Amino acid sequence: MKKLLPKILCTFLLFMLLFLQTTIYATEFIWSNYDETMLTSTNENETGNFLNLESGSAILIEQYSGKVLYEHNIHEKLRPASVTKVMTLLLVMEALDNGQISLDTKIPCSENASKMGGSQIWLDPREELTVNEMLKAICVVSANDCTMALAEYLAGSEEQFVVKMNEKAKQLGMNDTTFKNCHGIDEDGHLTSSYDIALMSRELLTKHPNITNYTTIWMDSLRDR
Question: How confident is the model at residue 225, as a pLDDT?
């Protein structure tokens, strides 16, 4: 595993950094200056695809106020793939803050989690990793198996964790979103919008700035084997 993680070279990390930098814009990254105001549109927004973007939807917001600076089809419902994990990470960080878990909490791997497929670190049902290690695996390599293991540990099952995901989405005003799973593997009805992604990403970064301890890892290793 020591050799594998550097070779993967943080594909998910690069995606996350590009995604977060294009949705959360500011000249200074001082997360403590959080404004509780949710995203608001103004007449000053740039609308329409005058940038000739090939993407079906795009949004740019200002970090502190949440003001929408540029928008293009921001409420179009699309499949979020592994961006789904932004909500999973948000709930994990909240669990850390409220003391439900700590970074040293050992998380077991179920048979279900070990068989996730897709991007993973090949968890074995006989092993346990700490929350710290699992956060690293999720943020660096988009590990579906670690995502599932954490979801099952926090809520008892993936189904109950997804309920919590949708409750949080509703609380944040993510009206274009329906989560069907915690990892983002395509599933009918598992949809969100660029507007809603901006909402949950801003919540994660402003309320839980320590997540950048993981999203800024360039390369690392797990398991001393």
Answer: 53
